[in-house]
Amino acid sequence: MAVLWTTVAVVLVTGVLGAGVLQAARHRSLLLSIVVAALVPVAGVSAAVAVNVNRMLISTHDTQVVSAALISASLLAIGLSYVLGRRVASGSRELTAALRGLSASRDGHDAGRTDAPAGVRLSAPAELTALATELEATRSTLRASRDRELALERSRRELVAFMSHDLRTPLAGLRALAEGLEDDVIEDRPAALRQMQQTVGRMSALVDDLFELSRLNAGLSQEQPARRPVSLVEVVHDVAGEARETARRRGVELGVDVEAAGDRLAVQGNSDELARALSNLVGNAVRHTPAGGAVQVAARRTPDGRAQVSVTDGCGGIEDHDLERVFDIGWRGQPERGTDDAGAGLGLTIARGVVESHAGSLTVANVGGGCRFDVRLPAGPA
Fold it and tell me: What are the pLDDT digits (tens) for 141-161?
């Protein structure tokens, strides 16, 4: 019984001392804490055995064997705890680096960095590896979100600059005409009034585009009346008929190729919105096609059953690095900037917004001599 109480007392004393050492080392390296935690139980057992061996009548040989076993166990505990501590400490440092990269991604200070941590090495414990993997995924998500935010901010700045240009020029013209009429220095007053009407019309169209873009971005399409079956064949013919006179004045041939379909390429949607989207595409194609060129509007059913409208122009193609930007807010090709009938750079953005609000897709690709915009919409009831 005395041996039992002696062993308990020695182990408790060793545990209290070990807890004191851990408390004192709580702000030191994690490696030191792990080594101390591993050695405290071994030290307790060694101290208890040493005390009890001295009280027992055993041979010197047995004492040496027990001592050798205790020393070996202690060395083994130190070695294993050191290896484990190094592994955990290394994983902890890599987690710290991952968190630092996460903070940089959030603040937007890691743009262009290639030394961002890719997660804890496989030598780390599974829990740390899983945590680091989640942190890396979060960092990638934040970086993508930051890139989108920067792209939107760049688009907003470009839009403000474009709007300033597109409003300042017609307003200056209106002011000059108004002052000329007031001072009675304009002889052809009817022509001046017609020019003022045309300028006001362009500015009204610009305001309408801005309102439509705001509505699409705000997701207000659900406030529109319930959608119903719409024939893309009729929409294509209506849009082409409206644009044919403009194309004739520019010397551009406007052709229509509509596939004969029993349901007349029916889709579920809003005919006014779809007509506006296609009108933007056709008008953009006519504006960018030089005199003597041709614009082709084709509508047909795709093999997967979707309705497709393709608008092909003769603009000469779009630079590869600009293909991804043609649908950005305010984007316009440089040759168009400064022309009298240049739009606000919102037509393609609005067209894509309308098509996507109808669960469709709008893509662009270069073809021989120009580019082609493809509108694909899911089939609707006939």
Answer: 888 888 878 877 776 776 677
Highest mean pLDDT among 170-174, 212-216, 313-317, 333-337: 313-317
Q: What is the CATH number of domain 155-217?
A: 1.10.287.130
Q: Which of 43, 52, 51, 48 has the alpha carbon at shortest distance from 71?
A: 43
The 10s digit of each residue's pLDDT in 283-307 is 889 989 999 999 999 999 988 889 9
How is 156-218 classified by DSSP, letter by letter?
Answer: HHHHHHHHHHHHHHHHHHHHHHHHHHHTT--S-HHHHHHHHHHHHHHHHHHHHHHHHHHHHHT
Task: Identify the DSSP state of 226.
Answer: P
Question: Residue 25 burial by CB count (10 A; 0-12/13-18/19+): exposed, middle or buried?
Answer: middle
- Reduced to 3 states, what is the DSSP secondary structure of residue 301? strand
- Is residue 233 predicted with pLDDT exceeding 80? yes
Tell me if 199 sits within 8 A of 191, measured CB to CB.
no
Residues in the chain: 382
**Best CA proximity match to 235, nearest among 245, 225, 247, 243:** 243
Q: Which residues contact 153 (CB under 8 A, 6 or more apart)?
A: none
Q: Rounded to whole angstroms, how far apart are CA atoms 265 and 251?
A: 30
> Which CATH entry fits the domain spanning 226-377: 3.30.565.10, 3.40.50.300, 3.30.200.100, 2.40.10.120?
3.30.565.10
